[in-house]
Amino acid sequence: MAGSFILDYLLFVFIAAFGALQMAAAYGPLPGLLLIRSKSLAFGAGLAITVAAFLLFFMTEPRNIPDTEGGLNGNQTAGLFTLGAGSALILTLVLSSLSHRALGKGQQHYASGLDALKETTYLNALTTTLKDLWKRYRA
Amino acid sequence: MEALQSIDKEIVLWLNQWAGRYALLDKVERLIVSDYFIPVLAALFLVFVWFAGRDARQRDAHQRAVLRALIAVGFANLTVLILNQHYFRERPFVEYELTLLFYPPTDSSFPANPAAVTFAMASGMWQGSRKLGAFLYGLAALWGLSRIYAGVFYPSDVVAGALIGVAISYLVAVGLRLIEPLPTLVLRGARTLHLA
To answer: What one-character-per-residue DSSP string does B129-147 give?
Structure first.
């Protein structure tokens, strides 16, 4: 019971966070983080994914279970949320980078922080920044 | 003290009289009162806010608010844990005949941990953005109210939890100002990796 609940919760958070990230990327907007080019479509898809995650989690089984009978305690809830949302972020960064490989590629510098994702993908921005840092370190 | 307990009792009994009467209302209530619905919704909101600024300045304000909210949640949780070691109050469903719409918790009713953590989160966000904070305050209030309705908390438990959460978040804000430039360095590090 506990194992299945943990997996259900982890999957729920993972899917919901994946949707929330698409909504945030569309709102920004951060084209480098979007999986669909159209902002409004991406926002709608993100919302649909998040709502679907909630429906799947709460409609399939009773979820008001104490931690002594297979539910999760506060620490587990927080830890699994971090794991699920972190995994969703990694998947978003990788998928968006692969699907828009050419976006803003070849530039010497990108804006700092998340603003770089307005011009290019995460992996492009990260590799450029790391190369730049390495050059400065070597010099 | 007796007057407060009497008000507590009256409110719980009045609210709980509606429990078990309407199937649809009970279904919605069981969803809202859950350990996972509002907490996950609020945490996802923090994820959204972290990435969703219109420009670097707004994003910086949002991210500082998210940091403050998360740290406040941790300290609010710890504070309630410590208080629970020294004071125990029975749950309303133990004291009175109520329709329970939640599993029967065995820990202390006072102060309400769910109220402490969600109000800490809301207050942390409020200090960065009134609009975003108001949304989280709404969720926190809804969760607290649903727990009273479900028969697992007294109103005074929720009010005390909320006050603890808000107070802790303001203390965290002062603490973060005192340890500057550490929070700025953390954000700058995340910014270097294009994550903030």
So the answer is: -HHHHHHHHHHHHHHHHHH
Give which of B95, B118, B131 is closest to B32, Cα–Cα: B118
When the candidates are 1.20.120.530, 1.20.120.350, 2.30.110.10, 1.10.606.20, the CATH number that belongs to B2-192 is: 1.10.606.20
Q: Which residues contact B15 (CB under 8 A, 6 or more apart)?
A: B145, B148, B149
Q: What is the ipTM of this complex?
A: 0.94
A65 vs B103, B192, B195: nearest CB: B103
Instruction: Report domain extents, chain B.
Output: 2-192
In the prediction, which pLDDT does B2 show? 86
Residues listed for chain B: 196
> Is B192 part of the contact surface with chain A (CB cutoff 8 Å)?
yes
**pLDDT tens profile B77-132:** 999 999 999 999 999 999 999 999 999 999 999 999 999 999 999 999 999 999 99
Q: Which residue stretches of chain B are H helix? A: 2-16, 23-32, 37-51, 56-86, 92-95, 113-126, 130-149, 155-178, 182-192
